[in-house]
Amino acid sequence: MEINEITGEIIGCCIEIHKELGPGLLESAYEECLAYELNNAGLIFERQKPIPVRYKEIQIEFGYRMDFVVENEVIVELKSVELMSNVHTAQILTYMKFAQINAGLLINFNVAILKNGIKRFIN
């Protein structure tokens, strides 16, 4: 699958969740639902995947955890916040850099219309 197809499938799964549940839940609830939807869509994914952080000659094995890596091509970071901030953007860009993955989706479920809560990143 190409990046556009993968991100389109992921966004479709998120729209389905948002239509059913709406905003206002905890991030963990949306994460569980997205795992269900990705599985039903036949997408290969890893959940809560650790990213090692390298600094000079040391490596921190579990520096961070990505919410999802889908098809080894796209990082998906979920949020349920009132407003997205530059910190959230920096977070996914850092994950993309450390994981050496060129595509990312930052999805905030705490919005009235989900398309207003989606940011797509391609390096």
What does this structure look like?
Helices cover 38% and strands 33% of the residues. It has 123 residues and is α+β, with helices and mostly antiparallel strands. It has a five-stranded mixed beta sheet with strand order 1-2-3-4-5, with helices on both faces. Helix 1 packs across helix 2. The longest helix is centred in the first third of the chain and has 19 residues, at 3-21.
Structure keywords:
123 residues, 3 helices, 33% strand, alpha+beta
Spell out the blueprint of helices and strands.
Elements: H1 3-21, H2 27-40, E1 45-55, E2 58-70, E3 74-79, H3 86-99, E4 103-108, E5 118-122
Helix pairs in contact: 1-2
Secondary-structure content class: alpha+beta
Which sequence of SSEs, written as H and E, runs from N to C?
Answer: HHEEEHEE
Q: What is the oligomer described by this structure?
A: single chain
Helix content: 25-40%
Instruction: Please state the overall shape, judged from the principal axes of the Cα atoms.
Output: globular
- What's the total count of β strands? 5
Q: What kind of sheet is the major sheet?
A: 5 strands, mixed
What is the gist of this entry?
The protein is 38% helix and 33% strand.
